[in-house]
Write a structure and sequence with these properties.
The chain is an alpha/beta fold. Helix content is 26%, strand content 23%. It contains six helices and 13 strands. Strands 1, 2, 5, 11, 12 and 13 form a six-stranded mixed sheet that branches. It starts with a helix and ends with a strand. This is 6-chlorohydroxyquinol-1,2-dioxygenase. Keywords: Dioxygenase, Iron, Metal-binding, Oxidoreductase. Belongs to the intradiol ring-cleavage dioxygenase family. It comes from Mesobacillus maritimus. InterPro entries: Catechol_dOase_N (IPR007535), Intradiol_dOase_C (IPR000627), Intradiol_dOase_core (IPR015889), Intradiol_RC_Dioxygenase (IPR050770).
């Protein structure tokens, strides 16, 4: 017998029975619930349901609790839109496959360190994000393949920098049963603007996380509950003419800095 599975199933049943008794769930309500779960399965929305019920982020927290020692960068959920084998980009790193003139330019930079302060050269940084409208390239046929996705290495001092655009917030899919649930319980479907990262270096624990744009209107009410204070990214507007000339930009842009900290494996 799988004792762990038995214990989990027993505990889950106890909690379900408690809810049934507290809210006096009827047979008709049970039928509606089962029909809803069937629709979720047929539409492939179980991962989305896990997200909006904040189960995904709770499991991420439990899974990586032992790895996070209070010094290393906090983890976060990978999300459903990650693509493996994103292009390897050379320096200077530019995530946009084409110039996105409608979106605001953003430079993100920083360093990768060990928890004891050692700069980690040749750390692999895997980045993916939405554009200014909140659209990922694998959901938007107007964007080029692997747009706003890429992998690159830090330099000999663990430094990195890449040019991208300020991502926009977006609503998770509302056309299926999970969207119907959110509407029925009067919850919004918005996710605050964010950038996803996978950070890996030999001999260290890899980190999957996301950085959220400070000041975003939805940063305090993320529909999947994934925002962590330590993962807020502050944007600074730059209008300096000399800096524009150095970077070859003829309009305002934004910069932001964030250092990643890895624990030894």
């Amino acid at each position: 017998m799988n004792e762990r599975l038995h214990a989990i199933t027993t505990k889950l049943s106890e909690h379900l029975h408690s809810v049934i008794e507290e809210f006096q769930i009827t047979e008709d309500e049970l039928k509606v619930a089962l029909q809803f779960l069937t629709k979720v399965g047929k539409s492939g929305e179980y991962p989305l349901l896990s997200d909006v019920l904040h189960v995904s982020i709770a499991v991420d927290r439990v899974t990586h609790a032992a790895e996070h020692d209070g010094k290393s960068t906090e983890s976060n959920v990978e999300g459903p839109l990650y693509r493996e084998e994103a292009p390897i980009l050379s320096h200077p790193v530019h995530l946009c496959a084409v110039d996105e003139t409608e979106d605001e330019i953003l430079y993100v930079s920083g360093q990768v360190f060990s928890t004891d302060g050692e700069p980690l050269a040749n750390t692999m940084i895997d980045v993916w994000q939405a554009n200014g409208k909140g659209d990922y390239e694998n959901e938007d046929p107007t964007q080029p393949e692997f747009n706003l996705r890429g992998r690159f290495l830090t330099d000999e001092k663990g430094r990195y920098e890449f040019r991208t655009v300020v991502p926009g917030p977006y609503e998770i899919g509302k056309g299926g049963p999970v969207g119907e649930l959110l509407k029925a319980i009067d919850r919004h479907a918005w996710r605050p603007a964010h950038i996803h990262f996978k950070i890996s270096h030999p001999g260290f624990k890899p980190v999957t996380t996301m950085l959220f744009i400070e000041g975003d209107p939805w940063v305090n009410s993320d529909s999947i509950g994934a925002v962590k204070e330590s993962l807020l990214l502050k944007l600074e507007e730059c209008n300096d003419l000399g800096e524009k000339i150095r970077r070859g930009i003829d309009r305002k842009f934004y910069t932001s800095k964030f250092d990643f900290i890895l624990s030894r494996a």
